[in-house]
Amino acid sequence: MAGFDKVVANYAEAMVGLEDGMTVLAGGFGLCGIPENLINEIRRKGTRDLTVVSNNCGVDGFGLGVLLEDRQIRKMVSSYVGENKLFEEQLLAGILEVELTPQGTLAEKMRAGGAGIPAFFTATGYGTPVGEGKESRVFNGRHYIMEEAIVGDFAIVKAWKGDRFGNLIYRHAAQNFNPMVATAGKITVAEVEEIVEPGELEPSQVHTPGIYIDRLIQGHFEKRIEKRTVREG
């Protein structure tokens, strides 16, 4: 069964093949469930002119935000970008191209890409700037716009547990965008908190089947809190 073993020895091996100008899909929501070490490896490699597809772009100095510091991202496809000052500065300066996409539409774009569906119709965005220039049709008396699916050259995700065959389980809210992202990469790399042997994961609990995963690595995570809220005593 050695041929099915997806585990790689280090992060450099995990991101072999990533080149300038590629499209990278990244799981996570805010700082929850982000593949932070894989992102740091992209920074270390110095890969540039990337198109990055993710719900948001991390925060200043952490998550995808670190890729902005060396201007490695050419274009960002996101649904929310409000927590990153450097992102705002680069956008206003014309350094960073941004394609804002409704959150549900972004999730479906990647889910469709992973399912081999090239496009779909959604009512979200019709009659707004989101729908400008896109094909529209009427179904049952309601207007819809056509959105194209997204497939990345690389997809990077973070999971709680994975077995050596690449089957993944996400923990609680860290599930977020990760399952869709995992299916939509030509090469999908997962980093996990714990690697177990095949057969140790309950099949009914698996969120991402190993067929979608090309490389797997165990990492150590900071799990930073994006916004800490406390209650006065």
TrEMBL record:
UniProt keyword Magnesium present = no
Q: Which domain of life is it from?
A: Bacteria
Q: Which UniProt keywords apply?
A: Transferase
Whether Ribosomal protein counts among this entry's keywords is no
Q: Give the matching InterPro entries.
A: 3-oxoacid_CoA-transf_A, CoA_trans_fam_I, CoA_transf_BS, NagB/RpiA_transferase-like
Q: What GO molecular function annotations does the UniProt record carry, in alphabetical order?
A: CoA-transferase activity
- Similarity remark: Belongs to the 3-oxoacid CoA-transferase subunit A family.
- This chain belongs to which protein, by name? Succinyl-CoA--3-ketoacid-CoA transferase
Q: What is the originating organism of this protein?
A: Kineobactrum sediminis
Source taxonomy? Bacteria, Pseudomonadati, Pseudomonadota, Gammaproteobacteria, Cellvibrionales
